């Protein structure tokens, strides 16, 4: 685990109507670290982010666990305290830059609003700062663009504006929920470059939620692989990509078509994520796993440490693994 | 509303490039022929009514018993009524009462309806109880409810406004709620919440401004309907009390003389029709511009 974690999620479980969604999710994000959270749709990536923001839908409840942010449990904070933290200490950007900006306010007004609220800045100062921020996210002619409405900007530009709003108060942690999924590939690369530069400049930690392993390989320091509400494998990017220990991680990597070497068909993982009402016993991945046997179907596997901060929740992982 | 009407004139031509560059909606509105027609009609009626002191040839209350039930002529363009009062002057001053009632009903029902509609649409827990109450109010035919309320409250301008507000606020509430239900699920609402905004700020800055389209259209509709409803209430004697003229009670006063002096009821009736037409044209134009999905084919 990372030293001096900014965020430490410890045994987080959530449920809706008695059905468990997240089941004991634990991981931490160190100071200035980028942690990629990957998994298929329904694996619990976004739920983890919303739990951290304390913005879960009313029907979803946290049943156990702690979410320590700078050492204090966010789950114990009042709604008023959370409002102060959101957008100030922890910021978040979404997948859809097209619809994440209010169409009736200029982008300047939307940045100024956040600054005025969290920093108590007067309008003139907040406006100057907003222009700085637009410069920071590399929007050309920021002083002019600041009075544009969202519909006057392209998707990539809007995502930059979203990033500017998120960074307005220099947050300690940025949660990026599929920040590049809706963008063209070239724009994706630009936005990732931007985020990489900003993260260094502002010394902030990033929780990068994505299903795109390419983005993770390029941008993240560590990876958390989620499957059906549990952590399947976690480790440094290089180690995890070089020696994936969990069959699910291996399956994810095998389902990406290789860019070099002989042309091979990508091999998708058979089946799909189990439904909440129909969670298999034991390892939740065993019905789709090619090598599952014995204990896999009956008992939940423990975390097997592989090497420095690389571990996998699989009976077969590591040198002494037996089913 | 009259500002649009005024803007449709030559002043707008000069102001257009700068004003409409940033407001494409305004540009579309000014190019919408029916909207501009409606706005001009309403502007003329409004200006004439406001300038009644200057252009009315007689006092609306002055009796002239030598010239009762006089047919329209050069001195009395719309004739005189059974007290010898000049119908044109009464129509001009009566417009003030009628338009004032319309405006007050629009403001009051928009305020109440928006408050109720936003609460119901935004806070899911309030939705069902509040809207069922609104359904109950809407189950009464509109004018019938207004008649019942007006006869309980008694005839006065304020009571007419209250009666019509109770009648139309639930309809506004329903429209606002529907708009809020859509806007509430937009990503920029989540984005605002993530940036630390509370409910009040989200409602005022993000939900309301994005729900205004249908509300504005509804406001024009209520304005038109209130002018009509005032006439109905006056006709059955629960409108603004005489001798203050209103379009409704001028028609009501003239109803016994329709066979002999039809002009007493005819002219205010025509003015109501023209005004309501103008307002409805504006409403249609606003709807076309604000909600393109509803735009009628071939217009």
Q: CATH top level of chain B?
A: Mainly Alpha
The structural class of chain B is mainly alpha
Binned strand content of chain B: under 5%
Low-confidence stretches of chain B: 1-14, 295-299
CATH fold-level label of the largest domain in chain A: Rossmann fold
Anisotropy-based shape of chain A: globular
Report the mean per-residue pLDDT of chain B as an integer.
84
**Structural class per helix/strand content of chain A?**
alpha/beta
Q: Tell me about the biggest sheet of chain B?
A: none
Order of helices and strands of chain A: EEEEHEEHEHHHHEHEHEEHHEE
- What is the class of the largest domain in chain A in the CATH system? Alpha Beta
> How far apart are the termini of chain B?
23 Å
For CATH, the homologous superfamily of the largest domain in chain A is named as P-loop containing nucleotide triphosphate hydrolases
CATH topology of chain B: MetI-like fold
What is the topology, as strand order, of the major beta sheet of chain A? 7-8-9-4-10-11-13-12
Can you tell me about this structure?
Chain A has 323 residues and is of the alpha/beta class. Chain A has 10 helices and 13 strands. Chain A folds into 2 domains: 5-89 and 169-313, 3-Layer(aba) Sandwich (Rossmann fold); 100-168, no CATH class. In chain A, helix 3 crosses helix 4 (123-136), helix 4 (123-136) packs across helix 6 (155-167) and helix 6 (155-167) packs parallel to helix 7. With 299 residues, chain B is an all-alpha fold. Helix content of chain B is 74%, strand content 0%. The model of chain B is unreliable at 1-14 and 295-299 (pLDDT under 50). Classes of the chains: A alpha/beta (323), B mainly alpha (299). The interface between A and B is medium-sized, with 27 and 18 residues.
């Amino acid at each position: 685990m990372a030293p001096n974690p900014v965020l430490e999620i410890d045994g987080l479980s959530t449920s809706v109507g008695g059905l468990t969604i997240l089941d004991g999710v634990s991981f931490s994000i160190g100071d200035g670290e980028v942690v990629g959270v990957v998994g298929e749709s329904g694996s619990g990536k976004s739920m983890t982010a919303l739990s951290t923001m304390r913005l879960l839908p009313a029907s979803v409840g946290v049943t156990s666990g702690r979410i320590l942010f700078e050492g204090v449990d966010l789950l114990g904070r009042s709604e008023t305290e959370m409002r102060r933290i959101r957008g100030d200490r922890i910021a978040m950007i979404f997948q859809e830059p097209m619809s994440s900006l209010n169409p009736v306010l200029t982008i300047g007004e939307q940045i100024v609003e956040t600054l005025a609220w969290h920093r108590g800045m007067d309008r003139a100062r907040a406006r100057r700062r907003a222009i700085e921020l637009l410069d920071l996210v590399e929007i050309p002619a920021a002083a002019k663009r600041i009075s544009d409405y969202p519909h006057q900007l392209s998707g990539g530009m809007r995502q930059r504006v979203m990033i500017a709003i998120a960074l307005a108060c220099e947050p300690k942690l940025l949660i990026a929920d599929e920040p590049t999924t809706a963008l063209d590939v070239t724009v994706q690369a630009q936005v990732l470059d931007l985020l990489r530069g900003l993260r260094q400049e502002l010394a902030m930690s990033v929780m990068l939620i994505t299903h795109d392993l390419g983005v993770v390989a390029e941008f993240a320091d560590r990876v958390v692989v989620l499957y059906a509400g549990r952590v399947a494998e976690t480790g440094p990017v290089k180690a995890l990509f070089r020696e994936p220990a969990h069959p699910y991680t291996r399956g994810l990597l095998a389902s990406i078509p290789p860019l070099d070497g002989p042309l091979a068909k990508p091999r998708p993982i058979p089946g799909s994520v189990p439904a909440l009402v129909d969670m298999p016993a034991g390892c939740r991945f065993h019905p789709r796993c090619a090598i599952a046997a014995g204990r896999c179907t009956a008992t939940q596997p423990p975390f097997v440490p592989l090497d420095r901060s690389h571990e996998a929740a699989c009976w077969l992982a590591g040198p002494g693994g037996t089913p | 509303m009259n500002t649009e009407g005024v803007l449709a004139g030559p002043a707008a031509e000069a102001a257009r490039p700068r004003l409409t560059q940033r407001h494409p909606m305004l540009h579309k509105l000014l190019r919408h022929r029916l909207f501009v027609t409606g706005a001009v009609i309403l502007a003329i009626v409004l200006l004439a009514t406001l300038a009644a002191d200057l252009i009315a040839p007689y006092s609306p209350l002055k009796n002239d018993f030598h010239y009762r039930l006089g047919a329209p002529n050069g001195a009395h363009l719309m004739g005189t009524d059974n007290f010898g009062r000049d119908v044109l002057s009464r129509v001009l001053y009566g417009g003030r009462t009628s338009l004032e009632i319309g405006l007050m009903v629009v403001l009051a029902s928009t305020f109440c309806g928006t408050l109720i509609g936003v609460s119901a649409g935004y806070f899911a827990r309030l939705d069902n109880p509040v809207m069922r109450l609104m359904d109950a109010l809407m189950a009464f035919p509109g004018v019938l409810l207004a008649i019942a309320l007006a006869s309980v409250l008694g005839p006065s301008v304020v009571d007419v406004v209250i009666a019509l507000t109770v009648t139309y606020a639930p309809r506004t509430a329903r429209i606002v709620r529907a708009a809020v239900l859509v806007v509430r699920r937009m990503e920029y609402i989540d984005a605002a919440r993530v940036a630390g905004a509370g409910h009040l700020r989200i409602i005022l800055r993000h939900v309301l401004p994005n729900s205004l389209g249908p509300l504005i259209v509804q406001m024009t509709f209520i304005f038109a309907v209130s002018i009509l409803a005032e006439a109905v209430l006056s006709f059955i004697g629960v409108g603004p009390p005489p001798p203050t003229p209103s379009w409704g009670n001028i028609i009501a006063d003239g109803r016994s003389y329709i066979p002999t002096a039809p002009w007493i009821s005819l002219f205010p009736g025509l003015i109501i029709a023209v005004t309501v037409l103008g307002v409805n044209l504006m409403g249609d134009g606003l709807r076309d511009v604000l909600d393109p999905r509803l735009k009628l084919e071939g217009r």
